[in-house]
Design brief:
Two copies of one chain form a homodimer. Chain A is built from eleven helices and no strands. Chain A is mostly helical. In chain A, helix 6 (96-113) packs across helix 7 (115-121), helix 6 (96-113) runs parallel beside helix 9 (164-184) and helix 6 (96-113) runs antiparallel to helix 11. At the A-B interface, helix 8, helix 9, helix 10 and helix 11 of A face helix 8, helix 9, helix 10 and helix 11 of B. The first copy, chain A, binds a DNA duplex through residues 2, 7, 13-15, 18, 20, 41-44, 51-55, 57-59, 62-63.
Chain lengths: 235, 235
DNA sequence: CTTTTCACTTGACACTGTCAAGACGATTGC
DNA sequence: GCAATCGTCTTGACAGTGTCAAGTGAAAAG
């Protein structure tokens, strides 16, 4: 494909100067944020970048590859943000449940901060992970980050869950669902921005309360495992 | 638009005989399920229904209206299913938390049973609720159903939540996120169907355990409300 | 200075949603 | 009974889309 480094000498190639590749990506994101996914088309992106309709094909084999790159970047940013929340000094003082809730909230905040990325990331009809190995790799890394954070949190004081795999899925689902509803669901439409943020905080707080109550109840009656003790991990 | 009733006498109109409208809807759903959202086009739908590309416009003003109808039907089916789960005799014997978990599971089961409907329902770029009053009405009804079920459940024995509105959003988010991940997310790809179902049951069970632990902890230490007592409902 | 390579451009094709107009049997008013 | 109307589609066209194939002109390499 296309070399992205500089030439043998320190000079920049023409492509690096015009920086069309990055401009195309930026134009795509802006287009989605301004006009919505429906209006996203390679030709409009090219138009916005000030080139002809075929220019994007020099950098991306097809439309899916371009979106795949955004998807990949999105997962990278998401992972970053979750790790930041998990390791945050401010959150370090919290209980295990509090830290988990903070990570969940960071997930939703990511969706709000990068709506175009988020809208593409979980849409297999736009970006099939089988066709975009980069996106798949970053997606897996994000998943493993969630898994690791949950695992550490469980070790640090959440012994009540019947299966850690289920708790991972539960945390991801809750965060993901809340992000979806906040971004494109009924919550986005009617409420003003501040009310939505308050709602997210309330949900986070509720979840945290539930987890903490679970911890407390186990401390009173230890060994209360619900059913079977995690038969198999779902990687 | 088009009258859908029968004629003044009991006879059927031509349209009712050919039943093209229903065939178009069915063809759309089949197309999504077989080929994915990307391949969905009015022309292909018309082709599948055995008519020319313009025939759908006799029944639907545009593509969005057709999808909006599917969306509306989806919300109706979802509401039905949740109410069934909430009122199920088998679930009636459960605790409040158990009933709530059963409703959540019914949400995910709906998504698996009607994947084409579900994929359309939460995609504003396909169906903008402002353009489809029917879809909006059924969507609101579904939301209110969730709210009512949560409310009843809280009254029946979940006093620990800091805000009922937050619990409603939490329940919806968890179910919705899980449905998304199961249908189109990382969970769908690698695991076989039975493992996915087991995972859903595990998550449901975990949530139920968390809620029940919360109930228990409150029963030991009543009046333990986290922060402020529900400032405003988000309708 | 010539040749190659890069970074695009031009042109075409099949496909899409949608507008305008037409066709044609069934129903209806008289 | 028969012309007029109506309902239910069809035909044709247009602008927009993603993508293939080929061309172009300036920079880089020799």
């Amino acid at each position: 494909m296309i070399k992205t480094g500089s030439t043998s000498r320190g000079r920049k190639t023409r492509a690096e100067v015009s920086d069309l590749r990055a401009r195309l990506l930026r134009a795509s994101i802006e287009l989605i944020e301004e006009e919505g996914l429906q209006k996203l088309s390679l030709r409009e992106v090219a138009r916005r970048a000030g080139v002809t309709h075929q220019a994007p094909y020099h950098y991306f084999p097809d439309r899916e590859a371009l979106l795949g790159e955004i998807c990949e970047e999105g997962f990278r940013l998401l992972t970053e943000r979750m790790e930041l929340a998990a390791g945050d000094q401010h959150n370090a003082k919290l209980s295990a449940a509090g830290r988990l809730a903070a990570v969940g909230q960071s997930y939703v905040e990511f969706a709000c901060a990068y709506p175009a990325h988020f809208r593409i990331m979980f849409r297999p009809e736009l970006v099939d992970h089988d066709h975009c190995p980069g996106a798949k790799a970053e997606g897996d890394r994000a998943f493993q980050t969630v898994a690791r954070i949950v695992h550490e949190t469980v070790k640090a004081g959440l012994p009540a869950v019947p299966s850690e795999a289920a708790l991972i899925t539960l945390c991801w689902s809750l965060s993901h669902g809340l992000a979806c509803l906040v971004l494109d669901g009924p919550l986005a439409k009617k409420l003003p921005q501040t009310a939505v943020e308050q709602q997210v905080r309330d949900v986070t707080k509720t979840m945290r309360a539930l987890l903490e109550a679970s911890v407390a109840s186990v401390q009173k009656a230890p060994k209360r495992v619900l059913k079977k003790p995690t038969p198999k991990r779902a990687t």
